[in-house]
Amino acid sequence: MHSLLDRKKKEAGVGIDLSLSYSLPQAARMFSCVGCFWVFLSSALVAVCSFSFISSAWIVKDHLKNKDSVSFGLLWHCSESLDHMYRCYTFGGLGKFAEIPSSSWQTSVVLCSGGCAVLAVSSLLAIITIFLPSGGCERRICTLAGYMQMTAVFIMGSGLLVYPFGLNSTLVRSFCGDSDIYYAGDCQIGWGYMLAIVAVMLTLFLPFFAKYAPKEHLSPTPLPTLL
C-alpha cells in the first residue's frame, strides 16, 4: 500500500517537473509586451523627430498688412504670397551649411540631426532584440539602446534650447521685426518646433521601457503554487 502511494507521488512530481520545464521555454519564446511597445514607440518617435526637424514651421508669421506669410525651420524658409503661391528655399542652397543665417541655428542643426541619428540607431537595436532569445545578449543590447536613447534626449533637447538664440539674426529681424533671443517679435512659434518638443519629451520615457523590455522579465507563475 505504501509503495503504491510512493509511486503515485513520484509520478505526480515528475508530471509537475515536466510541465514546468515545458512552460519555461514557451515563456522564453514569447514576445514581451513591454518590449513590443518599446520598439513601436521608438520607431514612431524616430519618424516624428525626423519629420519635425525637416519641417519649415518652427517660426511662422501669418499674412499681415498685405504682406506674405513667412516660416522658418532648421534648413528651410518658406513664403506664401497673398495669391496662395507657396515657395520654399534652403538657406543658401543645399550643401551650403555655412550660409545658415545664425551660428545658433547651425549648432541646432548639428545637435538635432545628430540626436535623431542616435535615436534611429537605438531604434534599430530595439528591433533586433525582438528576434533574439532571452538572455545576457538581449539584456545588454536593451541596456545599450536605453543609454543611447537617453543620450539622444540630451542632444536633441540641447538643439531645441539653442534654436531660439538665432531669432536675433538679421534675416529673422527683417521679417519678424524687433525679434530677439527667445522673443519672436511679430512671428510666433510654429507647429514644427512644438512637435519636436513633444517628441523629445516622449523620448524621455524610452530608457524606462528599455529596462523592462527583455523577455526574461516574463516570470511565469510556478505550477505548484497554484495547487
Protein model, in words:
The protein is an alpha+beta fold. It has helices at 2-29, 33-54, 103-130, 136-162, 170-176, 191-203, 206-211, and strands at 59-61, 69-72, 76-80, 86-90, 188-189. The chain has a five-stranded antiparallel sheet with strand order 4-3-2-1-5. Strand 1 (59-61) and strand 2 form a beta hairpin. Helix 2 packs antiparallel against helix 3 (103-130), helix 2 packs antiparallel against helix 6 and helix 4 (136-162) packs antiparallel against helix 6. It starts with a helix and ends in a 16-residue tail after the last helix.
Give a concise summary.
By secondary structure, this protein is α+β, with helices and mostly antiparallel strands. It has 7 helices and 5 strands; from the N terminus they run ααββββαααβαα.
Total number of beta strands: 5
Average pLDDT metric: 78
Total number of helices = 7
CA-CA gap between termini = 25 Å
Rg computed from alpha carbons, rounded to a whole number of angstroms: 27 Å
Assembly category: single chain
